[in-house]
Amino acid sequence: MKVGLIGFGKTGKAVASVLLQSTEVNLQWVLRKTHVLEHRSVPEFLGIDSHEPGLIYSIEEYPAQDLLKRLPVDLIIDFSSQEGILYYGEAAREMGVAVVSAISAYPPERISYLQYLAEKTRVVCSPNITIGINFLIIAAKILKKIAPYTDIEIIEEHFKAKPEISGTAKKIAQALTLPEDDIKVVRAGGIIGVHEILFGFPYQTVRLRHESISREAFGNGVLFAAQHILEREVGLHSMEDLMLPYFDTGSSCLEDE
Amino acid sequence: MKVGLIGFGKTGKAVASVLLQSTEVNLQWVLRKTHVLEHRSVPEFLGIDSHEPGLIYSIEEYPAQDLLKRLPVDLIIDFSSQEGILYYGEAAREMGVAVVSAISAYPPERISYLQYLAEKTRVVCSPNITIGINFLIIAAKILKKIAPYTDIEIIEEHFKAKPEISGTAKKIAQALTLPEDDIKVVRAGGIIGVHEILFGFPYQTVRLRHESISREAFGNGVLFAAQHILEREVGLHSMEDLMLPYFDTGSSCLEDE
Amino acid sequence: MKVGLIGFGKTGKAVASVLLQSTEVNLQWVLRKTHVLEHRSVPEFLGIDSHEPGLIYSIEEYPAQDLLKRLPVDLIIDFSSQEGILYYGEAAREMGVAVVSAISAYPPERISYLQYLAEKTRVVCSPNITIGINFLIIAAKILKKIAPYTDIEIIEEHFKAKPEISGTAKKIAQALTLPEDDIKVVRAGGIIGVHEILFGFPYQTVRLRHESISREAFGNGVLFAAQHILEREVGLHSMEDLMLPYFDTGSSCLEDE
Amino acid sequence: MKVGLIGFGKTGKAVASVLLQSTEVNLQWVLRKTHVLEHRSVPEFLGIDSHEPGLIYSIEEYPAQDLLKRLPVDLIIDFSSQEGILYYGEAAREMGVAVVSAISAYPPERISYLQYLAEKTRVVCSPNITIGINFLIIAAKILKKIAPYTDIEIIEEHFKAKPEISGTAKKIAQALTLPEDDIKVVRAGGIIGVHEILFGFPYQTVRLRHESISREAFGNGVLFAAQHILEREVGLHSMEDLMLPYFDTGSSCLEDE
Lengths: 257, 257, 257, 257
Description:
Four copies of one chain form a homotetramer.
Chain A: E1 2-6, H1 10-21, E2 26-32, H2 42-46, E3 55-58, H3 64-70, E4 75-78, H4 84-95, E5 98-101, H5 108-117, E6 122-125, H6 131-146, E7 151-158, H7 167-175, E8 184-187, E9 194-200, E10 204-212, H8 216-229, E11 235-237, H9 239-243, H10 252-256
Parallel strand pairs in A: 1-2, 1-4, 2-3, 4-5, 5-6, 6-11, 7-8
Antiparallel strand pairs in A: 7-9, 9-10
């Protein structure tokens, strides 16, 4: 599968390194807003041994239409900014190129634009695109249905400088219809990111805990999305949506083992 | 729903107290091997305010057939020993009374006997009948399917005197097709029981952790089984089996929010 | 060492069972406000095999002076109420009987009264008399001195029904001069009690974590106090005070090993 | 305080970045075995805004004696290899330059050499030079003395590829006179490093837990050593040794509050 990446900040670089090391996707190019590093090789820049082309282009060099014709991809991965999609959206829609966007906090008009794109092509939109967090959210929703009488607490820990409640914690609260104000927010030192969903039963406790090690975790999430989106129908999808079939165990779950 | 309980050791007592405090089942009687406490009231003995009959009988007083006729129940809950089922099995089979057995380590011939009973009535068999553990096992199986490249470690912690690997940890290992020898066994002080299933991704960690507080946790598991077994067909069921429908989220899972 | 216990509620009973099972103290009597269980044997009541006398008396039966003459003890352990000390205080002062009080939230006038008693006898006053918590408080104070630039967070978890911030968490905050309002309070199900003091360094995290299993933990703290108070001078002492000598390692700490 | 660093591998670079960002030490130079990056500026290479000189030299360029005369330092920090010390040892001894060595697994003859250097200058030798781990080791030794009846378990978690029991876990076991074979070794995914010392009391649990976030943690340990070694006498010191005075709380610990 040929993919292009837009956005080459800290997270974009981390994602690029995971993509280059994966045998399942082939990184065709990386797009940036600026001309910095233009036409440099991403594998070389990141010190990764890879035969994938992965040259860096500026959005000012070509219109997206031209870029997608010269260097066609099956999938565009977006770690740029809220504006990134305006550059390539129309071209992706027209040419049926799938989009995996990990931008958080799109304004409503951009969500509408995503829906417009999704009329003609496959779009995944997920602000926290790690496998672990998306798995925990679904699992927690299920456990809440199994044991609605439990008390659920969400605890998130991040580095001291992080100003607000984490967007991921808010998403968990929303998924479990819990008030955001009840999230316990721990800020200390250089903690990269911990999210715990605690279920208090009368006589037992279940803790679903996710610990981030580095930004590359987003890369594995992107790979998961890339592997599953092309099997899906045209439309707007979430990571949860792509993951749900794994939960439809049927009775075969037992038989397998 | 009318229930009877066989077995009144430490765990049996804890389960009885949960049953008495639940509005969903009605404890008709408790059966013991010995004559100790015969005809005493369980609510009174446990100091629980309840109008449920709950008298204690000895298995020597009546044949099971007679007991089930005089004091009929929909469900027999078994926290006795490997032999308990021999007392009431035939009668339950004949009269179509459901059975929830929490006996661990049945020998093969007793499993065959359970299957024989299950030809004519509903039988649930679960050595660790807590909701938390059974949920974690299913969730872990799903996560393993989603991310087969992760390294999975099972860590269990119990009180110093517990001699062997916990049966629950073994069950988890079996469910995930991991070697029992790799289970990390922590023994210290008075820890009641902790089980953690750790999924190591390259750049993130997911921990599914269960902490037991007291034996009453089995009571909530029994209630769950009681609430779901009567909707099921005649046959042999596991807790996982009863829990699986909650995992069949369909796409409705997303719509709910 | 002969000891007497005042207070026989849930915690008092738990402490009595630890005292009876210890070879280091000898439980002479238990005092209650009411006549309930009067003259019953505590070992028998608790089902513990012990040759210690341990009869139950009511404070209405004898004045404290008479009780201490008939059934002398070296130490009175107080798990009663804020008023308990008024019964035996004067007698303990006069006869030089040591006092270990685990009453939390004494009003100021009672603290003054303790100081008055401490003019003539040894008094330990500790609202949370577990070894684990008192150790963690001292250790945390030391780590704060070693690394004053770390961010410290206090997280406490208790059963849903517990209404306020735990007194222990407040004591930790006070010891580390942190605002009580910053304590993260988790309330869920039947959690008995967890306290975590988290130190966030820029590139590492230290967690000092205490998990309560049952009220008997107070019994082990009382034993520790009992073993150390008689070596101390007349006066008012805290658990931290009794524990501090273990921290004065000198350079011998290294040599030992 | 002027410092020089020998060793510029991954950990050496991480330590250099912490040193450059600290106001308490001034990085004069970095020494490497090879000529790679020779005479490059470390602040520039690491992208850190700093006015400290920090040029890179090869050990082949000058004898240590000459280097220390041209670019004098108070302290040499060694993150090179077992051989590094042979380059600068004699010169440091003669000129009274202090040494902080973080080399793990020195062979016996090198330990003897360190002792020889320590006859004339201050030497700190610590294979795991983080503040957190060294604090936990001392704290654990103290808790073991307070509660010798507890069961202690050591659990360490690292990335899948790490082949053996961690050296740090072994050091903890040694400090607590526990058999190395009992260490529970968890290997999964990309876990950077977790060490937990668990104390099991009969009715409570204390967990002393250290989580590494990145190699820079060694930098903060080096700073701690640098700040304390110059106050000490000539001789061989360990991190524990430097940290112990913080544990000698005296009774003043209580008075502070």
